[in-house]
Write the structure tokens for this entry.
Amino acid sequence: MRERGGYLFFDDFSLIEVVGKDACSFLQGRTSNDVKAIESGQGQVSSFLDRKGYLISFLSIHRLGDRYLLLTDRAQASTLMKELATYHFREEISYKEVQNDYALLLVQGALADSFVVNIFSKVLTAENSIAVSHSFGADCIIVRKSLCGDPGFYIFVPAAQLDEFASKFDKSAQQFQLTHISKHALDVLRIEAGIPIFGKDISSDHLLPETGLEQSAASYNKGCFQGQEVLARIKTYGAPRRALVGLEFETDVQSQFPLDTLFSVKNEDAGQLKSNCFSATLNRFIAMAFISRDYRLPDHQITINFSGQSYPVKVKFLPFYTAVEAKGKAKALYDKALHEFAYGSEEKAIQHLRDVIDLDPLLIDAYESLGVILSRHQQLDEAIALMHRLMELDPDSIMAHTNLSIYYMQQGNIEKAEEEKAISMSIRMAQLAKEAVAQKKMDEDKVKQALEAEKRLDMFRQVLAIDANDLLANNGIGTIYVELGQFQEALPFLHKAIAIKPTHTVAYVALGKAYESLGQIDNAVKIYNSGIEVAAKRGDITPMKEMQGLLSALSHAR
């Protein structure tokens, strides 16, 4: 599954359709994320909250034209329908459950992208994006959505067309060497990926910030929604008392633990176990768990106690498993293919390039290189087919038309060769015009940004003239200096911001960047480590992950 991918027909889902003139504004006012920002073909995760910020439902929202599809697990269907009915007054909308109209096929794993591009002729690069495709005799709805940490797709097949679809699909899945996976295997993969399930790992007993999902499911700029004030207070003034994290067990565990098992640390109540399993990927037992803020430091070792037993564990921020990006694998294999070609091993280069396209069907250079090598071997029909596929992926590809012109010329088809050459030239001229406009705008934006930065600096300086210990003014000036590349000037302001409020995590990010840019790497590492510890205790996931990434990059550079 991790090496290639797998599939499963899955029945544990709820799909609700919301349509009508007021569908967007209705969902905007009721959900935690910014529905108005969703363009057709896009989607987002979101939630319904009560007035105290506790979860009512967790879901994703996807837009097809004026049609909004709400996707979640089946257990939440009645709750969602009740919420829509409770808050629907005069809005011109209609809503209904449509999951019985569809069968859901999950395709997950390393080659999921390539499978969907080749079989469904769709390129969905953004998580939660959505498209419609007529494939295998069925009008399918495809949503890009990972359930295991690797690329993944939810494919909704009309129930009336399922039989014809399924028989043809199985043959294509076999050709791609996708494996049929069980629900148990899928659940293990889900736990490794740190993806919580409502009603199992998270529930109406939890505040959204406790789950760690508010980073992707809540907008603090969209305007009012139920529960917003609570979320804003937590974000501004402090961390939730508990948070969902991962636990890696340091000793062998013989069987799964019951959900909601309470555990203690040093004779104090510390947390509650959620989904848990043996991870074949990590070769150890793992669990998701809610744990109190005192113990949620990443990679911190503690001993948890329950049922008369003690278990040494390491605290991990979710996910446990992060996929090695197929794009990275594909680029390395592409470089290897060019090496083989340079040293005369063209057959090996061809095979590597085919594998590259399987791994990353959007790596444009692979199509071009494979087409060139195939044309050298007079395999012109396949080279031409590759360029047509490239044009489907990138209609503005100059090289696709240029190469087609060459290949048609080799076939003696002068008319088509000249036509492709003309198309190539017209695209290039249009691109040059766009580049000129973009460069002009970039230059104008730089001037505008510099003027705006100076205005903001003046405003913050005026505040400091009144109160030299103002947190926002010190942090603001320091951050602006970092943005302007004036790193030495930023240092005293950012240090003062941290002195004023040691839990102000964004100041650690900016200060670390300033030291890093000045070449003072030891100071940068020290600041990042301090910031990560503070952010972990507060539950400031976004700055914490940014500092972890910066720290990791520094360690690799060393």
